[in-house]
Amino acid sequence: MIFRLRHSGESRNPVHVPSGHSTARPRHSGARRNPDKGTLEAKQGQPRQYLSGIFKHVKISWIPACAGMTALVMMMAAAPAAAQPQTVKSEKHDFRVVTLVRGLQNPWSMAFLPDGRMLVTERAGRLRIVGKDFKLDPKPVEGLPEIVASGQGGLLDVALHPQYEKNGWIYWSYNAPGPGGWGTAMARGKLQGHRMTDVQVLFSMEPKTRAGHHFGSRIVFDGKGHVYLTLGDRGDMPRAQKLDDHAGSVIRLHDDGRVPKDNPFVGRAGAKPEKFTLGNRNMQGAALHPQTGELWTHEHGPQGGDEVNVMRAGRNYGWPVISYGVNYGIGTRIGEGSAKPGMEQPLHVWVPSIAPSGMAFYTGDRFPNWKGNLLVGALRDEMLVRLELDGEKVVREERMIKGLIGRIRDVRVGPDGLVYLLTDEREGVIVRLEPVR
User: Fold this and answer.
1) How far apart are CA 436 and CA 8, in angstroms?
2) Catalytic: 214?
3) Catalytic, out of 214, 246, 298, 300
4) Contact by Cβ (8 Å): 29, 46
5) Stretch 294-307: mean pLDDT
6) Largest CB tally within 10 Å, which of 214, 382, 406, 424?
7) Residue 77 CA to its chain's centroid (Å)
8) Is the pLDDT of residue 214 over 90?
């Protein structure tokens, strides 16, 4: 017998690539992706044997001896060298896509510490530290409350308090256990070395169920002492229209967990006082508008009908009574149509779906022609979407880096004015977009 060697780019099996600045993309073993669920359905029977040492990027399988050593040498010569940062041309800026960190397992969110380090969540329940040199610390942060990693749930968003340098508070959202199952919660704590101390659970949604999808969730501070948390409908559509249920809404709290007296449903019989909105399906992107200070979100539609909305107190965003999407597979109408009096219309809709996740207003100086634009990550088609705005109207959409780095889960503008992207893969990466002058 002889070896048949095949370039690993032909395989969807995971390939480890040493840390470094490259755009080489990890792949999955013949997996089919469900873009809304963010899960992988692995095909069986995929060979996973690799040569070590210099051949670790070359896949082998055994075949009868019939090809000869010439073919072997030729295939070895085709083994790839480490990829260099790629330059991407876009409508307003050319930029490099530089991979900074590898080795993350289904990461979900990232936050920048003032000392130059980063925090990254992994859905399995690990909070990771990335050093100033972009090396991933092998030791996760300890001391977090119990996290249920089930379906789309697990450790989700992470955010620093606006006054972090004074108070040290770090906030995170996660899937928390409780009577009836589990559901989205938010906690805060203070990082001491590799341990979270002074941990306080500020919110835990009710009721809890054993469903494995539509948890939300993003954390946003308004700079006025409040914190917002976005939630999903937990896969049970009618819950989004119930005032006595946290699901399918934005939660608004004081930053210490108290309920603001001016929340729209405070004092209404049977209503959850933490609720700020209702009628939302599954919001996995949220950001504060840099001029108006209002909370913008995007949410997954069903089959089609992803939306961008501005969250306003007490408003009903329609799900599942109205939607621009249809039922999965069968394509039938959901609810009563796409509009109804008393229910909000989205600012922007994607049909077909892009499966949005993560978003940020660009407020830096490194990409001046993107100033004020909304940047949205997409799981489906694995791209970054740039929306040009005129007030609350989207006037232009550009789709960038499609299929280049993987499923984009989070989008952040760093303190250096550069754009950072996080990919939700079993070999997830952090990449940085750097302008080409």
Assistant:
1) 30
2) yes
3) 214
4) yes
5) 97
6) 214
7) 38
8) yes
